[in-house]
Amino acid sequence: MASKYYANCMENLAYDKKVLEAAEKRKGQKRRNKPTRLDLELNHQVFRGLRQESQIRRYRSYHEYPPSTTPMASLQPISISDLRLETHHCGRVLFVHTFGNPVLCMAIRNIVEDVNGDVEQLAVYNTPKTATLKHVLPGNCVFAIKEPFYEASEDGLYAIRVDHPSDLVQLQVTDALFPQKFLPQITEPDKSAIEYKVAGNAAFRRKDYLLARHLYTQALQLSGPADELTQILLRNRGVANFNLGRYEEAETDARASIVASTDMTDSKKVSLDSKALYCAGRAAYELRKYQEADEAFLSALKLTPNDPDTMREHNRCSRRLYEQSGGDYDFEQMSQSATKTHRLDHADFTSNVAVRSAGKRGRGLFACKDIKAGELILCEKAFQACFASECNASLLGEINTERGYFDAAEGLVFDTIDKVRRNPEAASRYLELDDGGYQPKCPPTLVDNTTVVDSFLVRAIILQNCFKCHNVRSSDHYCYVTPGSPDVEARSAGIWIASSYINHACVGNAFHSFMGDMRIVRAVRDIARDEEILVPYRCTDIDHNDVRKILKDIQGFECDCIACVAETKTPDAQRAHRTKLITDITAFMSAQLDRPGLPNKHHINRGKQLYRDLEKTYDGDNYKNVPRLGMIVLGSWLCGIQRTFVCAKETVHAAKAVMSHAGFHVEVKQGALVVQRTNACLDPCVTGIVVIAAHAYVQLGEIGIAEQFMVWAREMHVTVCGELRGFDKLYPKLAV
């Protein structure tokens, strides 16, 4: 499946590249055929009739241009007739009026006219999945497009393209730059601060928090600097900001609204201050500032000691501080809470690791203490995650380098841009991640009271750091879902900031799993203090040549772990023979999975012959003490089948051979299980082999050794799945 996924990425990127190369030839030209209003309205109707759920959305980048950081008043107006194709019009601003209804087709689109009556299509990209069309690009409204980009779009039409949300500004009639041409014939009389407040409250009750925020802001501009109305408006706007996910602004507004009266007999002021502290605490909690949040809740409880909501939030905050300090999680409860759309409520545990220089790999994550095999290294909530169940298939691609992801990554881009805009200070850690050398760098900046975020920078960081995760839980993937079903093939994606610094090695010393939007990393073997944490990004069940190509084309690097070094030292003819054998083995294994009951003797002998042939392609010199990753899947199948036909001693021998191929060298000394894991590669198949060995030792009457194997199997299962759930479903208990 990985090869098919890779091929889909490359095929779609190649198509986009052809379209964009054709457009590039017209760069700097004016549009030849000027459209009429009727032309655009008819084309717009076509967009409205398209079924969005059937489309693969492509976010492709060819011309990367920075967002406008110039105040609107300093930009020179431009008209539609002066726009040039495939050109970023720096230093200019285009004023337009929308005269259609917005539609979603690759972007949010509407049709617009400028002050001269010329018309064109406007396409706004990088809006969050939850954004409604009427809020982004409503009809009969006036917009300023700062430093517009004019494109010949992939649908054969033309569009004024907006990639940076801050480049599109909706104007109000009261704005100084509102074009005279678009002024309404009848204007509303000026409103007072109280009238704006009443209108804001009405919008809030309708859950139109964006409008409520705007109206409260209008009211604040008319109210006194520190009167009672100002405190009420700040408090109301703080709650509106909280509901919009603007937690930094919510906390600022809430704290600014506090009167801090020393008169505790004024019950109204005390109650209002308590509510403000509660809002500030909730905002700090969402920003993952748990200590600050707890202090706000404690201050609120001093004012209103018996408030149940504040007590509940204080207790919730205490649990997060407990998780954060010691990594003590209730993984069973975490697993039960995980659903396809539920974001989990847990703190990050990252005190075991630190970011340091990793030489040619850039930055890496290193152990701050000795960590035992199976021990929790870190547990982290996603900065942003997008589950495949929440959005359609999409392609996030970088045309110039032909790198891309074919999954939920596009939705991840949109939501991450929105999150960075809403909370730029909290997003600073995200913007410190590797961006692949993207230039020029434009940090979030406040211009015209709007946070300017470079969408291409956010996207570049995602291309470097985005990681695929299972739809709900890793244990579902390994234990509860039929291979080949949509839940297995669905490709969710996320960004985990601390975990993003973990570099890849096919033979790593750690393994990660997922529960909802939590990423859990455990040690595969003992890790020494100051040793770099490495995890495999790849599967072990596909040909190594494919793996290296995928890592290079999609991840953008070449692996130099011991398995990859051994592979590159192998002669080309030998590697080609191994590739053919793995293709044959894949077909053989697929046929066995589809066949009911146990395989017959012919099929078993065929499997043994393929196994022997494949083993010969791993020569002893290059692969001494190096995992032979291609052997694991077929070896596991043979071991599982043969245990019903051979004696227990032979089963133990076969199981140890498969463990050895995975880098686990097992011995039993004086009744104790000894596992040497220096170059171990934790493949999920190996857990089942350890269980088979345990049952064989029961047949040999060595119960103590069998129980030690089962303890090890449980440890491996938890490392692979993040929890013990599913172990008893997959593996039978020991018959002792």
Automatic annotation (TrEMBL):
Residues 351-538 form the SET domain. SMART domains: SET, TPR. TPR repeats lie at residues 274-307. The keyword Heme does not apply. It comes from the Eukaryota. The keyword Amino-acid biosynthesis does not apply. InterPro entries: Gramillin-biosynth_MTr, SET_dom, SET_dom_sf, TPR-like_helical_dom_sf, TPR_2, TPR_rpt. Keywords: Repeat, TPR repeat. PANTHER family: TPR DOMAIN PROTEIN (AFU_ORTHOLOGUE AFUA_5G12710). This is SET domain-containing protein. It comes from Neohortaea acidophila. The lineage of its organism: Eukaryota, Fungi, Dikarya, Ascomycota, Pezizomycotina.
